[in-house]
Specification:
2 copies of one chain form a homodimer. By secondary structure, chain A is of the alpha+beta class. Helices cover 22% and strands 46% of the residues of chain A. The longest helix of chain A is centred in the last third of the chain and has 15 residues. The mean pLDDT of chain A is 92. Strand 7 of chain A pairs antiparallel with strand 6 of chain B, so a sheet runs across the interface.
Chain lengths: 134, 134
């Protein structure tokens, strides 16, 4: 289950405001960015939030990959985006593709401030459960 | 965008082997566990992998929540599961629900070894991008 999980919280995004509230557009962009980086999209689900007046608001969505997933959540109220790209390296090392994809997605939102984290999955701090020996 | 992201890599899962290779069953379980913890499921996509003989193999899937997401990927070859539960706390503090859900999901797989990580989203190490001042 070794893999690379790239995590970003993006603030003060300077992309066109419409980009943060258009689920169909965001879905198409994310799927295209995945396939351009030779990751295998097996499905996706994006949801369009609406405000009290029924106008498009934020978006929450996931692209399910054969290699794991991409998730995205937007907060247009504060021009914010939270983003995850996770690829397993089970049958091939997909780390380079993940890094390219992650950079491409972040670039599209043009954040003034980004907070990022990298996790090596499969090498997290492990805990042997006591129940295993109960 | 403050929120809680709970991450687990589960090893040597002792649940019935069938549970790791049945996309429909895993999807129903994950969706039910989300709603039981009063999280709002807005959609989901689960994919069934098959082996060379066309038999069910691993599962990869996402439950998209109004509060963010749950993702799950199984590796039946090694009785492994990787799991993410991420909830934003934008309009309410969903941390307790996320922790209950996370524990419930982990319990179902009965791992002998679990590796977990907690991230406070919105409080990751931030970086002001130089391009903001270019």
């Amino acid at each position: 289950m070794n893999g690379l999980h790239l995590i970003a919280d993006l603030n003060r995004c300077r992309c066109p405001p419409q980009f943060l509230i258009d689920a169909a557009d965001l879905e198409a962009f994310c799927v295209s960015a995945c396939t351009q980086n030779r990751l295998t999209v097996v499905g996706r689900f994006f949801h369009q939030f609406t405000d009290a007046a029924g106008r498009p608001a934020g978006v929450t969505g996931a692209v399910v990959l054969a290699e794991s997933h991409v998730t995205i959540h937007t907060w247009p109220e504060i021009n914010g985006v939270s983003l995850d790209v996770y690829v397993c390296n089970f049958s091939a090392d997909n780390s380079a593709a993940a890094r390219h994809l992650f950079a491409r997605l972040i670039e599209a939102f043009q954040p003034e401030i980004k907070a990022v984290e990298e996790l090596e999955r499969g090498r997290l701090k492990s805990q042997v459960l006591s129940s295993a020996f109960a």
